Amino acid sequence: MSTARFDELIHAPTRLAIVSLLAAAQWADFKYIRDELGLSDSALSKQLSTLESAGYVEIRKQFVGKFPRTSASLSPAGRQAFEQHVAALRQIIARSQQDCDAQPAAEAAHGIPRR
Amino acid sequence: MSDTQQPRPAGTGTTRAEAAAELAEIQRRREQVIKAVLVPVWYWWVIAAAIVAIGVARDSGDLAVQATVIPLAALVIAVLTGAMIPELRRRVKAYTPPASARAPQTSARVAAAIIGMIVLVDGVILGTAASLHAAHLRYPGTIGCAAGAAAIVIAGPLVNRYLRKLMLSQARQQTSGAPQAAGTP
Q1: Residue-number span of the structural domain to which B23 is assigned
Q2: Of B106, B30, B93, B51, whose CA–CA distance to A82 is shortest?
Q3: In a designed cystine with B140, which of A76, B84, B132, B161 is the match (CB 3.0 to 4.6 A)?
Q4: Is B168's Cβ below 8 Å from some Cβ in A?
Q5: Domain tally for chain B?
Q6: Residues 6+ apart with CB under 8 A from A99
């Protein structure tokens, strides 16, 4: 299991959607990501550039016949960061659950009557 | 908050509800990709219609009809199947974890589901048609192919659902680290 590490870069909603989509894919076409997430070309380009600068995403440009095709994939570092981020989210939920479970026990130990 | 701002220390401000919402978003995106790589339901209906057409042509006894309809239906099946897979793979390719991280027998289960469906459909067509023919009943080809077509439109989406479950289980394993076979809760 991955070490938990909350990643602020992935946490941002649009980037979370992009990284989640790419995490489930080996690679995805630029147009596919744009359409599935309902983003404009420029908004997606900007977010992909940010993720690429962080080393989380690899962008591949190639020609299929006469048409240029851009696809994106998570880099090994991006996949690891994503897995660590998911582990951190699970940890937040687990800790919150533990706190909820511990509270009645602490109240009982201190003799606080439960309503 | 702007996407580029990073004012909080690592996750300390994230509540349980926010974390749960993020995990739900991740799950939704996974399902989106898996849905995109599986064949759509209408594919099974077109294949079923082509099979019924073959059966009807066979029973018509008209050589001209047989010579036209049977190759045409076979062509529809071949072209549709041949075009569907590359078209699905053109947009997105589902992630496959390395063999060491994969749940045991995943590939074998996928192959068994697909081969099982082909054997089932062929078995239904040939079994029904042969039985009807042996009983000297009319239209054995049409009825046999119709039974096979019914098997396709029922089993096709079921195979899709099984593959979806298998892929989701594999994706969950990727982020939780715990191998989990499809079919286990």
Answers
A1: 18-176
A2: B30
A3: B132
A4: no
A5: 1
A6: none
Q: How far apart are CA B174 and CA A86, in angstroms?
A: 10
Chain B residues within 8 A of A58 when measuring between CB atoms: none
Higher pLDDT, A34 or A97: A34
Mean pLDDT of B106-124: 89
Winning range, highest mean pLDDT, from A68-77, B95-104, B105-114: A68-77
Q: How far is CA A17 from CA A63, A77, A113, B113, in A?
A: 27, 17, 45, 31
Cβ-Cβ pairs closer than 8 A, A with B, add up to 108
On whether residue B2 sits in a domain, the answer given is no
Task: Determine, for residues A20 and B26 on separate chains, whether the beta-carbon distance falls below 8 Å.
Answer: yes
> In B18-108, at which residue ranges do the beta strands (DSSP E only) sit?
92-94
Residue pair A84/A2 in contact by the 8 Å Cβ criterion: yes
CA separation for the pair B55, A106 (Å, rounded): 74
CATH class of the A8-109 domain in this structure: mainly alpha
Whether pLDDT at B123 is above 70: yes
Q: Backbone phi, then psi, for A98, in 5-degree steps? A: -60, -40
Q: Is residue B41 part of a domain?
A: yes
User: At what angle are helices B140-176 and B41-60 packed, to 10 degrees?
Assistant: 160
Measuring CA to CA, which residue among B51, B46, B43, B41 is closest to residue B149?
B51
Within 8 A by CB and 6+ apart from B126, the residues are B144
Q: What is the pTM of this model?
A: 0.73
Q: Tell me whether residue B125 is in a domain.
A: yes
Return the pLDDT at B174.
63
Distance from CA of B166 to the nearest CA of A (A): 13
The dihedral built from the CA positions of residue B154, B156, B162 and B165, taken in this order, carries a sign that is negative
- pLDDT tens digits for B127-175? 999 999 999 999 999 999 999 999 999 999 999 899 888 888 877 766 6
Residue ranges covered by each domain of chain A: 8-109
